[in-house]
Sequence to fold (405 residues):
Amino acid sequence: MSETSALAADMRRALRAQDRADLVVGIPSFRNAATIGHVTKAAAEGLRRHFPDKRAVIVNADGGSEDGTPDRVRASADGVPTVAGRYEGRSGKGSAFRAIFEAVVLLDAKACAVVDSDLRSITPEWIARLIGPVVRGEADYVTPLYARHKHDGTITNTIAYPLTRALYGARVRQPIGGEFGFAAELAKVYLGEPVWDTDVAKFGIDIFMTTTALARRVRVAQAFLGAKIHDPKDPGADLGPMFTQVVGTLLTLARKYADIWRPVTGSHDVPVIGEISAVEPEPVNASVRVLVEKFRAGAAEQDKAWADILSADTRDVARKAAESGNASAIGARFWAKAVYEIVAAAKNRDDTEVLARAMLPLYFGRVAALIGEVQGLDQAGAERVVEQQALAFEQTKPYLLERWA
Ligand SMILES: Nc1nc2c(ncn2[C@@H]2O[C@H](COP(=O)(O)OP(=O)(O)O)[C@@H](O)[C@H]2O)c(=O)[nH]1
Ligand SMILES: [Mg+2]
Fold:
């Protein structure tokens, strides 16, 4: 049974007790007491400095932290009205966002920004750049653009960015960055979609928001935010569940929006808000040894699934690369083809999570290969490698269309 609301009674009451608002800043959290105070302070200061004439409310939707996370928000809001509490329903970031969308509607707000609670590098300017374009009527959906260390954002770099770009034709560099700005109408669209029992309630939320915005052809802009510094995750150690949630959602949506992406060829730039400047992000660790081991173990585990999903050629190359521990065989073109075989398999299947799990070992292999490809390169050099890979996805798209048909 699907919950009809993610807002618990006490949060709903607290929101009703507020006057209506123009702007909402939403902060999802789960055990972020150490960092959320700084995020709240930056949000409050951004609202005060950049939108002095607007009425704003900060909404913290928490997953039941025992470390006092919502208290830190209340204590750090510097006089900006704040509603902080626990959301209802499945635990996950997406349920927290659902509660925030509902708060936007209840407060009759016009625009909202959401920011992660583990951010160290957020400044008041982020709020201006995320909500400003929506307030000024220049965009309906704003994605972040930041400098990330070359080993951070591996799900973004290997699949979310290149696949979203090739499917929907928009060069949204951080489709799952976590920080977004959007118009209230879009929040209503999100609430109306029948996704809240799926991985969208978890880490599928970001790709759901971006894909829905692109498929509906709303006006999208990217906000340059400098460097993203947050609690880092090692791609080998931490990212398996997040990968299947993001990719499972991506595949489900590819199925739903096939009529929209099939005619799209090439891609176009998405406007950037704010001056892009060079910034040095903090290094993120990635263990190639762990990645290659996960590639090997996952390949053995998924061998039967691969037989159903992948072409004989692709399976053969992937198997040999995994068995010999030679991840460099998972180059950009090969990776694009393998991804497309899995996307095409989603045409006639509901179990996209199974398909995402079949892709996971290949992703570990691809990340290991990519770490090799960007070795010794600076930020700009690594960025060029990611762009080359995105081009490979665009150029290989006819293969997807062929397999889809
Ligand atoms: N409410 C809630 N928030 C979550 C949950 N999982 C993650 N978040 C929040 O979602 C944001 C992004 O999560 P994070 O782990 O930093 O993911 P990443 O930065 O994408 O690797 C943070 O603000 C988290 O506190 C959850 O289960 N419930
Ligand atoms: Mg984070």
Residues 379-404 form the longest helix (26 residues). DSSP finds 17 helices and eight strands in the chain. The radius of gyration is 21 Å.
